[in-house]
Amino acid sequence: MFSRLREDIACIRERDPAARSTWEVLSCYPGLHALVLHRWAHACWRAELRWLGRFISHLARFFTGIEIHPGATVGRRVFIDHGMGVVIGETAEVGDECTIYQGVTLGGTAFVKGAKRHPTLGRGVIVGANSQVLGGFTVGDGARIGSSAVVVKPVPPGATAVGNPARILQAQVEAAREEAASRMGFSAYGVTQGDDPVAQAMKGLIDNASGHEHQIALLWQAIEKLAQRSRELTDEACVPQDAQTSESFDAERLNRLVK
């Protein structure tokens, strides 16, 4: 029991720069209190003392604002930061070294008793604030879920899920970013700017459209130069205004002007 407590305190001091001392963590961190009470509630649940387990869980929610069902499985060195509004369902499994921020729900979408209704988080998963992970699927080791994401399908190991509904970023694309982030230290909230693939696609479309506008502007300038030159030639030849003139399109000259 005390070894687990020392592990929990050490992981909080490692991941939270606001933690100044062991006593501060032990006395002022509701995430730590919720985990300690959950272990008592989970022990009662496994011993078939279901009401007592639920009652301890209810007290933990009252004092910490964090609701962890006594049937949920929580690994070692899990850090629930701030924690207000966190809900972890009965069949949820949280792997070792996971980090969960405030407002997160590990919820279920099925109503079948005894079925696996809640998600499984692999080792080292980071779940950003106000995210919803709903369903009996697995979030792979080292995956990250961005703040306010709504995840309803499996997330591969090492990948990032962002948006509503969540879009999965490929793990290969994120490998270089993960390496850089590891050199800088712990990545709070599990997401950086520019991760949204839809936003990146929109930026690409805007850049492409801007390039087309530039090419069109060059074409108009070339056409205006040709028209001006045609008028000059007409004036030099003293062609009457009512005379019919034939115009020809010089493609090669237009290409040279555009270039």
Structure notes:
The protein has 7 helices and 15 strands. Strands 3-6-9-12-14-15 form a 6-stranded mixed sheet. It folds into 2 domains: 2-195, Hexapeptide repeat proteins (UDP N-Acetylglucosamine Acyltransferase, domain 1); 200-258. By secondary structure, the chain is of the alpha/beta class.
CATH architecture verdict of the largest domain = 3 Solenoid
- Give the CATH topology of the largest domain: UDP N-Acetylglucosamine Acyltransferase, domain 1
Secondary-structure element string? HHHHEEEEEEEEEEEEEEEHHH
Task: Specify the number of helices.
Answer: 7
Question: What Rg do the Cα atoms give?
Answer: 31 Å
In this structure, how is the largest beta sheet organized?
6 strands, mixed
**What sort of overall outline do the alpha carbons produce when their principal axes are compared?**
elongated
The N- and C-terminal alpha carbons lie at a distance of 76 Å
Total of domains: 2
Alpha-beta classification: alpha/beta
Strand adjacency order, main sheet: 3-6-9-12-14-15
Q: Could you give the count of β-strands? A: 15
* Residue-averaged pLDDT: 82
Q: What ranges have pLDDT less than 50 throughout 5 or more consecutive residues?
A: none
The percent range for strand residues is: 5-15%
CATH homology-level superfamily of the largest domain: Hexapeptide repeat proteins
Return the CATH class of the largest domain.
Mainly Beta
**How much helix is in the residues?**
40-55%
